[in-house]
Fold each of these.
Amino acid sequence: MLIWVVRRILAVIPVLIGVTLAVFSMLFLVPGDPVKMMLAEFVTTPEQVARMRAQLHLDEPLLVQYGRFVANALRGDLGTSIRTRRPVVTEIGENIGSTAGLALCGMLVAVAVGIPLGLLAALLRNSWLDVGSMVVALLGVSMPSFWLGLLLIFAFSLHLGWFPATGGGDLAHLVLPSVTLGAIASAIIARLTRSSMLEVLGQDYVRTARAKGLAWWGVVVRHALKNALIPIITIFGLQFGNLLAGAVIVETVFSRPGLGRLIVGGILAKDFPLVQGSVLFVATGYVLINVLVDIAYAFTDPRIRFG
Amino acid sequence: MPSPTRASASADGAAASGPGVARRLGRQRGAMLGVSILGALVLLAVGAPMWSPRDPIRTAAREALQPPGPGHLLGTDQFGRDVASRVVYGARISLTVGLVSVSIAVLLGAPLGLVSGFYGGRLDACVMRVMDVLLAFPGILLALAIVSVLTPGLTNVMIAVGLAAVPAYARLMRATALSAREYLYVEAARALGGRDPFILARYILPNVIAPLIVTATLGLGTAILSAAALSFLGLGSQPPAPEWGRMLSEGRDYLREAWWISTFPGLAIMLMVLAMNLLGDGLRDVLDPRLKT
């Protein structure tokens, strides 16, 4: 098991090297001169352009630049934002809490709604509840999160006045964004839970447990659900990534501070160091979370480690 | 619903015949609903100048923020522009964006995956490592990063959304080609002296077409959603283009006094994506039930 875990962790290294290469090369894929593009909105002298070029080490050979980029990143230095002139790491540090909270609460909503919905749909197959919940799930998958967010603001903030419409801070500010973020993921989890549960319910051991005379609910929870949840764990990693990416949109809808708004603001302001640093941070986080999910998966399903 | 034996029989070997697929698709209520919605939206998009009551970008300050009514079926926005006309014209933009993005993804991803899976070895390892790196950027983040490099704009959004979807097609095609190349008839074709391009086109391609069609149909919906999201963030189409995501973002500030500005474009996006998903699900059941989750 330990060897498997170590091998899984080592397999991440080439991917992370690729990610740093991709993020590093962003600056060089910009059509035209990236420095002029970044400074387009400022009145600049040639000296200032040259100073900026030196500050970004753009006059050095590419390989040296890449080496410096990776070495700095490993030391926790992701450069300096052009707009705010503050270290990118500080900017990320100030925003990560808000985004992580939003993603976690979104996941909570997704699980709390998705798993019971999928479970009920599977247990009451072909009933109106099954059809209804799958229709809701299909609508959820097709709904743009930014529209759902606006509808929730319209209903629960502007009309009912239950929750604040925009901004970050206390728990009340977290409710509508979490529901918006979690709703789409819950639709996906509900569909997956349903199909996974239907498969498990048809297995011999479920029939045996029923034949032994065990209570129906006991069989569902102890024998069926436990096994049906295995494939759902893998989707967690994927969904968590989607939630992180979804936070980009939800944060804009609710004008919440966070990594998503940081990135979008960076793109609009052509603040390349900020965009590069935050994108690198999110991608690395996503890769590492997926490794953790894989390891958790192996713990729940011995077929993975020994297969 | 098709019987399991019949459905799985069609998934094996070459793609099912056109009329057979259409007939079986016709029996799927969900897919037919999708086709009807999609048909209506395509008609709306093609005949936009005919249906739309007004010029979608003509402003009229005196008619600003009028609620839906006989004069303006879906109301007017803060500049007095007719929301109905903008939604109708928006269908053109959304359909174009979806088709162009998915075409980019398919044209780049499918050959890459096909060749990679067919030949295997170092080429395969190389291509798949690159795809792994691209997949390390979750969801819309890759498209965001690409837009930031290409600078915001609708054309660049189509490129970004298309490029971001390449790994999905490359992986799908690789997996299908990998299993297809082991079939006996491929071995037989090789024994008879068939060259690689011939074997790829004649024996491998028909096997991968069905999952490709299904994934591309479902991908259309995802592409439209992503592009609308990027426009909503201000990185896609620029004003005054009647793009649905952009309209939603513009209507955001008027939610209290004019709910209709953002509600109808949102509904339009959802209907279009729903139609693609329904059609994609139906096609999957008919063409390739193995993909069903």
Amino acid sequence: MNEKKFMNPYLAGFFLGLILLATIYITGRGLGASGAVKSVYTAVVESVFPGYTSNALYYQEYGKEHPGNPLKNWLVFEVIGVVIGAFISGLISNRLKFKLEYSPKSTLKVRVTGALIGGLLFGFGAQLGRGCTSGAALSGMAVLSTGGLITMAAIFGGAYLFAYFFRKMWI
Amino acid sequence: MGPLVPEVIGNELNFIVAIFIGIAFGFILEQAGFSTSKKLVGLFYGYDFTVLRVFFTAGVTAMIGVIAFDHWGLLDMSLVYVNPTFLWSAIVGGLIMGLGFVIGGFCPGTSICAAAIGKIDAMIFIAGSFIGVLIFAEGYPLFEHLYMSESWGNVKVFESLGMSQSLFAFLLTIIAVGAFWVTTFVEKKVNGIINPELNHKKLYYSLTAIAVVIAISAFALPDRKENLLKNVNDEKYVASNEVKLMTSDELAFRIIDDDKNIQIFDLRLKKDFDSLSLPKSNNYTLESLFEKDANKFLSLKNKKNIFIADDEQTARKGAVLAMKLGFTDIYVLKGGMEEFKRDILYFRLISEGTTQSEKDTFRFRTKASKVLPELIQKNKEKQKSGGDNKPKRVVGGC
């Protein structure tokens, strides 16, 4: 069976907007993704190096903002849902497959290195910028947060700014 | 009135809700094609503008929805998380994320979505993002200054730009719709890509028209809150609405009698409320009557809602406002707190009067002036130990 076509982007956007609206109406907060990485990371550090987290400044500040077990966090549960939802979508559209995608003009090595470094930069940037494309840019736009919209402009502006230098990886 | 957490949906149930919201979120991202890096970076090389279309449509839909919910009094925006603004970390963090986007081909949400359907590059991206968080966490003292500098608080973008919310929402919608047309043109003419599902010209002309109409209607709907506040600040308007009055004696009697069916909305200044507040009373301002906390109490059934202020006129403003917001059983303290203090709390009268009713009043007021201050003192101690239990803004963000 062939892969099914993607959903019409405007329709998908409309649904995504409704999901975000429902999230804000129900919970008073927006969607997110990178926060879950932070919570999982903190939980791992806490269990591997107990005691360490109470000394380092970053973990102290984290603990102040999120008391209790770092895994008992709204975004961690939401991301578990994302994995399930994406899997169901892949299943019904015949897109479940282990695959490492890269441009025919690029190489496997370049793609692997790029994904790792790109992830590193995004993970770091999302901490510094207090949220990623979902938590800061999209959710920030829904509630018209100045910071969220600045972050959005910087993410997409930055991507256009640097795109030229990495064009050989993609086109 | 939203947000439904924590009153309607408890904090534990909220985690279950999170899973279901996540499922819907992940499903739509994958259906939109966000599980492939080639489609995502297409935005930056001009060959595929799916990301822009999905992202902007979602953002504008949610934004208009939030504004409408706020307008209709369905959502208390004072409790909704608004991402705080720290200027430099937002800019520098955003630029680093942009760089990560073109190098890695994903963003955190899409990488999780892609990994869920088996994309190995996405799994590597996630591994990378853990290293990124590690570097930030371990090097935090180095970045703290940048992270904390230029803190503007939870500001809204239209305030920062000095325009009205309606105007900003209108402009953003127009920009989004304009971007949809331009990028479709770019795809077609510059790259020769024709997206078959985007070929129904008539449909898109009508969708554009609908979007423009919705955007313009933002102006047609005057701000309900501002309008109501303007109205109740007009004496003539307040006078044209009939309100039920409650005398100082009746209020004092109900408080001493420990009447469970009254609740008092005290509109005096915070400092006056803190130094002397009646039992069963909470402090509000005209603005905070729109919020969820006031809403919760005012919508309770079989309660007499008594508005008090230093003077009767201010209390009438609050009462009329509450009535216009659709609440019933509204009363105003006759003569205001000034009269209440004079006739009850600090009641000093030598003569007990001549008629029977004057004598009764005298006896009641003499008794009340002893009992009430004690009740007020007790209530103050109770409040101190109970603490502040007004609902707080949700902590969100990433």
